[in-house]
Amino acid sequence: MIAQAKIILKDIFGYDEFRPLQQEVIENVLHKKDTLCIMPTGGGKSLCYQIPALLFEGLTIVVSPLISLMEDQVKQLDALGIEAIMLNSSLSANEYQSNIQRIRQNKVRLLYLAPETLLMERTLALLASQKVACFTIDEAHCISEWGHDFRPEYRQLMDLRKRFPEAACLALTATATQRVQEDIRRSLNFEASASFVASFNRENLFLAIKQKSQPAQQTLSFLEKFPDQSGIIYCLSRKQVDEMAEFLEDEGYSVKPYHAGLATEVRQQNQASFIRDDTQIMVATIAFGMGINKPNVRFILHFDLPGNIESYYQQIGRAGRDGLRADCLFLFGYGDIRKIKYFIQQKNESEQIIASTQLNALIGFAETEDCRRLPLLKYFGEAYSEPNCGMCDNCLNEDQTAVDVTIAAQQFLSCVKHSREIFGAGHIIDILRGSKSQKIKKFAHHDLSTYGIGLDWSKQQWFYLSRHFVQKGLLDQDLQHGSLKLTPKAWEVLRGNQSISAKINQQSETRSRPKIVQKYDSSLFEILRQVRKIIADKNQVPPYVIFPDKTLIEMAIYFPQSEDNLMPLHGVGAVKYAKYGDPFMRAIADYCQVNQLTETPKAGRGSGSSSKKIGRSRYQVVGEKYNEGSTVLQLAKEFKVKNQTIFDHLYKYSCAGNTLRPSNDFLEISQLSPEQQQTVSAAFQEFGTGALRPVYEALQEEVGYEELKIIRLHCLTEELKKTS
Ligand code: ADP
Ligand code: ZN
Questions:
Q1: Which ligand sits nearest to residue 387's alpha carbon?
Q2: Which of 93, 323, 482, 553 satisfies CB 3.0 to 4.6 Å to 424 for a cystine?
């Protein structure tokens, strides 16, 4: 059975391999065993029931809490040519009836329902007459009161299960906490062996945290890295969302706000516009994200503190579902912490304890100098043992050696002391760097001995250092006011009894970003995106339903123009090929024609040849074919071009450092007499083959450039090169 599952994976979904645990889960389900599948967002949960649904004889029911999620799934399945429908309150009476009709006629493989709909008597009556093969509960954490979105109707699902005794039961969720997992198992009467828990490490997410110093500037310079790419900016308050959206709009960005204060229609419009790639950036409160399946979100910016580590993880999880690299930046401000502390103080005592613990975990995560994945995964009970993930700011800093910053520490600490331990890092840095701010004047801090002594470090470096000193226990920070105070340990440093070192980023900002994506033709990618957008709009679906970005990237690597070359690409199954292949191949062919590029087959799995090869230029292919024995005339015919074009290709090929096979082709095609040919050859020997003009002039302009090019090639062939 699993062999068939693999065939479906490739033929219908167009994917080469299963993601971790998909195969195990599918196997379990195919054996009709209870299965609890816990995978992070983007882990590929949907395939775990969609593939069995295609292999089972009966119907697969999928319970889903949100209409938007159901719609999205049905659209995606529809594009793949899979019969899937939904029953919910968003349908008109006619649509509803026609869907029921299709179920009765056994035409449906997957049926998506909200729990309320499923619990209705008429639905149950309908299903009683059906053979139900699999009962799938998506977002299964909704069953648990401990989960973040408990849905009472989910509680009744366990009774319902008994109505389908023959059906496999599959529960799926991205919630990792033990408590919720156990709750789901208990509610559904699953054995412990039913659980499949994938790693929560999202390898393709680059995690970075920066001290929030100039938030607007930091936001803009972050966004600069993602021209035209989708992303989400999370802010804490509605007001901040509106301000940020306005600010970015003024800066020329395509952006829409999203928060609970907007009218429902406006929210829906903005969300739809983002999903369809009509809007690049969503500025949102945490209200945004549930029910979004957009796989090509390339960045998440946390402009404010997330509520806790779990919500941070959930929010960054919305990026990079397609498995391609996505960047997550968290602007961490001590000022924001003070605000949160204030809110916490308004709560009752037991809430205060929980909230403070969560906040401290978040601060620990932000301040760690270890790999970011360590505390993050630890929070979910997962041990992470890689020495260097290569995908977080700290691991990239790893190669920086620690430098001695004892003097900087002494300067900073004594400045804190002289200004009487009532100021935050920003003001201390202003003193050290000799700022002329009002505040300095007001407190006469330009009279301090530490005024202006810290010009060796930039403001940003000082911020980093101040954070480092707090972390090293030299300073205590008052979380309410942000002021810094010396600890006993600080005195050891001031007295010169202890030295301090830090891995400080000397180059600051512009470190090269590691790339997961291989090299591709970005101009072609843009063209293909437009082709996709037109098809998507015509079909009223989001662009990713047509093809994911990864497919377009592979098109821009291999330039496929035939079924043989398009079908092996990621995300291209038989139905999608037939439905959408043509316009893409046409666009690629046009592009290749203009840019003289040629298609290369994507190396199949295990064939051993490098799949990293990027599309080779036409001249290379022509040159190689010539050297393998094709004549100029044959090549011209094969590529449907003039002889002259082949000559140009061969000349380029030779200039690229390749030798050309000796042949009589050139002299035979040339219209010159044998004597003239000899004279021209001699001129090339004398003036070299680099430029035509000297030869043209030396021959009294009697031989045209076309002819010169032919003889030049003759001179460049292997034999003549050796003798010259
Ligand atoms: P989840 O529900 O776990 O968040 P999805 O089922 O939406 O994840 O899958 C995320 C994305 O990954 C989708 O675009 C899906 O098509 C893709 N995907 C799933 N399985 C694979 C696979 N084996 N190979 C490549 N892409 C996959
Ligand atoms: Zn790391």
A1: 2
A2: 482
Q: Which of 162, 197, 232 is the last residue of a domain?
A: 197
Residue 16 alpha carbon, nearest atom of ligand 1:
24
- In a domain? residue 513: no
Ligand 1 contact via 542 beta carbon (within 6 Å) = no
Highest average pLDDT, of 391-400, 453-462, 514-523, comes from 453-462
Q: Is 44 in the pocket of ligand 1 (CB under 6 A)?
A: yes
The number of the ligand nearest the C-alpha atom of 173 reads: 1
Q: Is 668 contained in some domain?
A: yes
Task: For a ligand 1 pocket test, name from 2, 6, 13 the mutation site with the most ligand atoms within 8 angstroms of its C-beta.
Answer: 13
**23 located within any domain:** yes
Ligand 2 center from residue 376 Cα (angstroms): 10
Residue 223 φ then ψ, to 5°: -65, -30
Which ligand has the minimum distance to the alpha carbon of residue 374?
A: 2
CA 42–ligand 1 middle distance (angstroms): 6
Atom of ligand 1 nearest to the CA of 48: 6
Location of structure tokens 């594009």: 79
79 and 169 both lie in a single domain: yes
Q: How far is residue 342 from each of residues 120, 308, 467, 501, measured CA to CA in Å?
A: 47, 16, 21, 34
Q: Which residues span the domain enclosing 301?
A: 205-382
Q: Please tell me if the CB atom of residue 175 comes closer than 6 angstroms to any atom of ligand 1.
A: no
Q: For ligand 1, is residue 25 a contact (CB within 6 Å)?
A: no
Q: What is the domain count for the chain?
A: 5
The finding on whether 550 has its CB within 6 A of some atom of ligand 1 is: no
Ligand 1 within 6 A of 42 CB?
yes
Both 102 and 249 in one domain: the answer is no
pLDDT of res. 718? 64
Residue type at position 589: A
Q: Which helix (H) or strand (E) holds 117?
A: helix 115-119
> What is the per-residue pLDDT for 569?
96
**Residues 374 and 450 reside in one and the same domain:** no
DSSP 658: P
Task: Note whether 23 and 163 are same-domain residues.
Answer: yes
Per-residue model confidence as pLDDT tens digits over 568-625: 999 999 999 999 999 999 999 999 999 888 999 987 543 333 333 345 667 788 888 8
Mean pLDDT of 140-156: 81
Q: Which ligand is nearest to the CA of 21?
A: 1
Distance CA(307)–CA(288), nearest Å, equals 14
Q: Is the CB of 39 under 6 A from ligand 1?
A: yes
The pLDDT tens digits of the residues spanning 66-112 come to 898 999 999 999 999 999 999 988 899 999 999 999 999 999 999 99
pLDDT by residue (tens digit) across 461-491? 888 888 889 888 899 887 667 789 999 999 9
552 or 702, greater pLDDT: 552
> Given strand 59-63, what is the order of strands in its sheet?
84-87, 110-113, 59-63, 132-137, 168-173, 35-38, 195-197
What the block records as the tokens of 90 is 């968003």
320 ligand 1 Cβ < 6 A: no
Which amino acid does the sequence have at 251? Answer: E
Instruction: Give 47 Cα–ligand 1 centroid separation in angstroms.
Output: 7
Binding site membership of 613 for ligand 1 (Cβ less than 6 Å)? no
Q: Which long-range contacts (CB under 8 A, 24 or more apart) does 626-635 make?
A: 626/650, 626/653, 626/660, 626/661, 627/658, 627/660, 627/661, 629/661, 631/663, 631/665, 632/665, 632/666, 632/669, 633/665, 633/669
351 and 219 part of one domain: yes
Looking at the structure, do residues 25 and 144 belong to the same domain, yes or no? Answer: yes
Based on the domain organization, do 118 and 246 belong to the same domain?
no
573 and 649: one domain?
Answer: no
Q: Which ligand is nearest to the CA of 80?
A: 1
* Dihedral, CA of residue 167, residue 168, residue 173 and residue 179, to nearest 10: 100
Point out the domain boundary residue: 132, 162, 197. Answer: 197
Q: Is residue 641 part of a domain?
A: yes
